[in-house]
């Protein structure tokens, strides 16, 4: 974890220094300390790149935690935060607010996106708990798939008939940290912090759930309460993130597996008290690295971080799945 924190610090400095206009590290450090060489450097650092980097840190940590939590709740190694329908809810809310309400700015529809994400998460939870057996991993996953399919169909119906909604949806759906301000980061942080606290508080109970519902119940765990807390955490973390930067494919899916491999090599095993913090450190490393590469590889044009993560994450995930060690994790 100390090594990951050091890598993350280096990536933060590179994220502030690199872009369409390169800023030397010594000037970055002087600007961060309030002694910038010029007003232009100060504006680049504090107005553009510091908020972008801070959003990458918050969004990466949120999606990493949400992915690890979702896989633990469903006991499914292929689960990701999108299983709860949160991303689909945010997408439908965006196209609805643009097509029906005529909103055109990020600050206008971002709150609708967050509300749509929360509503989708709540709907999946209540559908999953119907029936005698209550909320189970299988029912939770099935309810999420059903709600996601429904919302995706409604979103497609709207964007096919409204060009403005299609343009907004296309940009949001790519997944990007660009064009964000400090005000946006401050709006997202309370929800991410609340979700992170809920997620970390679930860690001991998740270790019990991994042994099966019967064993967890015999150990005194209240399964319904644990799953409610977990769903609330995933909804807050994913909803706050995707409403601003869009759905970043593979981040919440791949990172928990990488965290398990690191935890196994460190000798702590599949202990969620370590897996969750490791995921929260690994995910922003990957997100910031993808964002940095996207800024410099075809300068001055940018490639969205979500596109690069999908490009890198696909082969990486296939390689991890093929390894025998992953099956043992």
Describe how the helices and strands are arranged.
Blueprint: H1 2-17, H2 25-32, H3 39-74, H4 86-99, H5 106-128, H6 137-159, H7 163-174, H8 182-209, H9 213-218, H10 223-245, H11 251-266, H12 272-296, H13 305-322, H14 324-328
Helix pairs in contact: 1-3, 1-12, 2-3, 3-8, 3-10, 3-11, 3-12, 4-5, 4-6, 4-7, 4-10, 5-6, 5-10, 8-10, 8-12, 11-12, 11-13, 12-13
CATH-defined architecture: Orthogonal Bundle
Shape: globular
pLDDT < 50 stretches = none
Total helical segments: 14
Structural class: mainly alpha
Residues in helices, as a percent range: over 70%
From the alpha carbons, calculate the radius of gyration and give it in angstroms: 20 Å
At the fold tier of CATH, the topology name is: ABC transporter involved in vitamin B12 uptake, BtuC
CATH class: Mainly Alpha
On the 0-100 scale, what is the average pLDDT? 86
Which homologous superfamily in CATH is the superfamily?
ABC transporter involved in vitamin B12 uptake, BtuC
Quickly count the domains.
Answer: 1
Largest sheet: none
Tell me the distance between the termini: 19 Å
Order of helices and strands: HHHHHHHHHHHHHH
Number of strands: 0
- The share of residues in extended strands comes to under 5%
Pfam families: FecCD
GO biological process, one term: siderophore-iron import into cell
Subcellular location: Cell membrane
Protein name: Iron ABC transporter permease
């Amino acid at each position: 974890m100390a090594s990951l924190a050091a890598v993350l610090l280096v990536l933060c400095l590179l994220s502030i220094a690199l872009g369409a206009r390169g800023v030397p590290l010594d000037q970055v450090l002087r600007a961060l300390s309030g002694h910038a060489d010029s007003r232009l450097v100060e504006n680049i650092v504090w107005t553009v790149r510091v908020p972008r980097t801070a959003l990458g840190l918050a969004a990466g940590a949120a999606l990493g935690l949400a992915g690890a939590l979702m896989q633990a709740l469903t006991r499914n190694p292929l689960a990701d935060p999108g299983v709860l329908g949160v991303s689909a809810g945010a997408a439908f809310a965006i196209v609805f607010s643009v097509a029906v309400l005529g909103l055109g700015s990020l600050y206008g529809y971002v709150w609708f996106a967050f509300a749509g994400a929360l509503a989708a998460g709540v709907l999946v939870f209540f559908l999953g708990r119907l029936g005698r057996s209550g909320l189970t991993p299988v029912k939770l996953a099935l309810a999420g798939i059903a709600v996601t399919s429904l919302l995706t169909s409604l979103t497609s119906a709207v964007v096919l008939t409204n060009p403005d909604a299609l343009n907004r949806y296309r940009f949001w759906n790519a997944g990007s940290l660009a064009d964000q301000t400090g005000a946006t980061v401050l709006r997202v942080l309370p929800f991410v912090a609340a979700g992170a606290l809920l997620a970390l508080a679930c860690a001991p109970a998740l270790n019990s759930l991994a042994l099966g519902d019967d064993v967890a119940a015999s150990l005194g765990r209240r399964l319904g309460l644990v799953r409610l807390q977990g769903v609330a955490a995933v909804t807050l973390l994913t909803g706050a993130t995707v409403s601003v930067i869009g759905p970043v494919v593979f981040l919440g899916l791949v990172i928990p597996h990488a965290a398990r491999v690191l935890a196994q090599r460190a000798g702590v095993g599949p202990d969620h008290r370590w897996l969750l913090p490791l995921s929260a450190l690994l995910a922003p490393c990957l997100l910031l690295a993808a964002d940095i590469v996207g800024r410099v590889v075809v300068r001055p044009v940018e490639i969205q971080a979500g596109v690069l993560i999908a490009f890198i994450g696909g082969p990486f995930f296939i390689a991890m799945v093929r390894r025998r060690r992953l099956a043992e994790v």
